[in-house]
TrEMBL record:
It comes from the Bacteria. This is HAD family phosphatase. Belongs to the HAD-like hydrolase superfamily. CbbY/CbbZ/Gph/YieH family. Pfam families: HAD_2. InterPro entries: B-phosphoglucomutase_hydrolase, HAD-like_sf, HAD-SF_hydro_IA, HAD_2, HAD_sf, PGP-like_dom2.
Length: 214
């Protein structure tokens, strides 16, 4: 029985993976290295510190992880603020339906809190959410379940009564490890993601009907 709904953000609320891919490629160029989108796809759903720790080692970057992230995140926020973009189709309607049914709503995202807040500000969506958790604020990021378990705790709902929508392999793994029901949203812009562990596969957010979950 649905008692809370938790959203991943990147690739679910905002079609942001192209932004991430572009900025991450440019960040690597800034530091004198080349990386492809295909190589970056395996990191979708992971936190910045976890991703850049691996990349720093693989590509032998001289900068610290903190220095890399500082450049990447400032570039990403500047890009986000300057582009004309709307939430993914169906998101506003789903949020409204959840609110009308008095279902608590959370965000459990691997992005830094500052980026999550910039997205919610840009789309004027902050008022819909009862809690926001960044994967950087828990012990382990996705695919570990920590960020989803923390969101459920803040919402005061048993994880087994939470429904999640995710677009990434690591995110689906995190939701299922938390004991939650998971919709796997196929977003082609999120790269080749294995969503087979999700309970349901959808190709549009509008396929989620709140009345069918109550």
């Amino acid at each position: 029985m649905l008692k809370a709904f938790i959203f991943d953000m990147d690739g679910v609320i905002i079609d942001s993976e192209p932004i991430h891919f572009d900025v991450d490629v440019q960040t690597m160029k800034h530091f004198g290295k080349e990386i492809t989108q295909e190589e970056l796809e395996k990191f979708v759903g992971m936190t910045n510190p976890e991703m850049w720790k691996v990349i720093k080692e693989e590509y032998q970057l001289q900068q610290t992880v903190a220095e890399i992230i500082e450049h990447q995140l400032s570039s990403k926020i500047t890009l986000l603020q300057g582009i004309q973009i709307e939430p993914i189709e169906g998101i506003r309607e789903l949020l409204t339906s959840l609110k009308n049914n008095q279902i608590p709503i959370g965000i459990a995202s691997s992005s830094p809190r500052v980026f999550i807040e910039e997205v919610l500000k840009k789309f004027e969506l902050a008022s819909y959410f009862d809690c926001v958790v960044s994967g950087e604020e828990v012990n382990q990021g996705k695919p570990a379940p920590d960020v989803y378990l923390e969101a459920a705790s803040l919402l005061g709902v048993d994880p087994k009564n939470c429904v999640v929508v995710e677009d990434a392999k690591h995110g689906v793994a995190a939701a299922k490890a938390a004991g939650m029901t998971c919709f796997g949203y196929v977003n082609e812009n999120s790269g080749h993601q294995d969503l087979s562990k999700a309970d349901f596969i959808i190709h549009g957010i509008s396929e989620i009907k709140v009345e069918n979950l109550l």
